[in-house]
User: Which sequence fits this backbone?
């Protein structure tokens, strides 16, 4: 029976030690931590489901519009085809850009989607670089062109000052509609006029009108009519700021002829040629 005895020294071995029991407070704290962690997981999972699945499909999109005077937010949304219940998923940004860009007052449009429920629309207006007069709805009124040769406004509501008037740009009886673009042969001219406006818009204070003098169906010259002067300036169609200033300089030089006022000054060759009323000319 000696094998059944336990010596006191053996009681210190690990197998004979009692495992300490957790207190009720520790057990309660562990349980609360697990519940909190479970709730956090449920909350985060629900938020992710809302953000990535529910909100883009069901929540109406919030629209920010940066437009310009004359085209309000309601008009922009109507042109873009955005209804009151439009959602992030239902919006085609590329198609909306094309719809907005087709509107005659808009030069460019940019539509940006911000996940999950926002939309930004940025619009740039067309800016007038020249004008002419045409019959619209049975009456003659001013119409305005941008640098791309697009007719985008009509009437007297614009307050543009010193815009060059282009005559002969439209054929007789040609219908004029807002949004129409001129013949491709004239587009480089309007691009150059736009560049001149960017560099020195005040130059048009000296020019009242630019006439189109057609040479054939693809080529034309320009006849500029200075303000407060009867002498015409005949130029090539590839005008720029420097060529106009040179023509105006030749106009001042022509005044040295006293009473022999020329009919026009021809600067198409790059050297001014003074043409008298009878058709004679000489270089200067």
Assistant:
């Amino acid at each position: 029976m000696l094998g059944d005895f336990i010596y006191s020294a053996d009681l210190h071995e690990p197998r004979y030690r009692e495992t300490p029991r957790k207190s009720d407070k520790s057990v309660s704290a562990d349980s609360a931590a697990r519940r909190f962690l479970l709730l956090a997981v449920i909350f985060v999972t629900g938020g992710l489901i809302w953000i990535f699945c529910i909100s883009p499909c069901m929540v109406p999109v919030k629209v920010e519009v940066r437009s310009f005077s004359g085209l309000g937010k309601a008009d922009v949304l109507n042109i873009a085809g955005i209804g009151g219940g439009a959602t992030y998923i239902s919006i085609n940004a590329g198609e909306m850009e094309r719809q907005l860009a087709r509107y005659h007052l808009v030069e460019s449009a940019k539509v940006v989607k911000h996940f999950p429920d926002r939309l930004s629309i940025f619009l740039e207006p067309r800016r007038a670089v020249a004008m002419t007069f045409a019959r619209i709805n049975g009456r003659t009124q001013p119409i305005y062109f941008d640098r791309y040769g697009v007719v985008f406004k009509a009437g007297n509501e614009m307050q543009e000052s010193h815009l060059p008037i282009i005559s002969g740009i439209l054929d007789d009886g040609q219908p004029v509609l807002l949004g129409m673009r001129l013949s491709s042969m004239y587009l480089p001219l309007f691009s150059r006029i736009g560049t001149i406006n960017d560099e020195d818009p005040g130059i048009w204070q000296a020019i009242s009108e630019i006439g189109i003098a057609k040479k054939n169906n693809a080529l034309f010259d320009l006849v500029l009519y200075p303000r407060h002067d009867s002498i015409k300036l005949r130029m090539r169609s590839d005008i720029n700021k420097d060529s106009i200033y040179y023509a105006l300089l030749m106009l001042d030089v022509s005044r040295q002829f006293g009473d022999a006022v020329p009919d026009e000054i021809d600067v198409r060759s790059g050297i001014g040629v003074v043409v008298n009323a009878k058709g004679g000319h000489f270089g200067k």
Notes: Helices lie at 24-58, 73-80, 93-101, 187-199, 241-254.
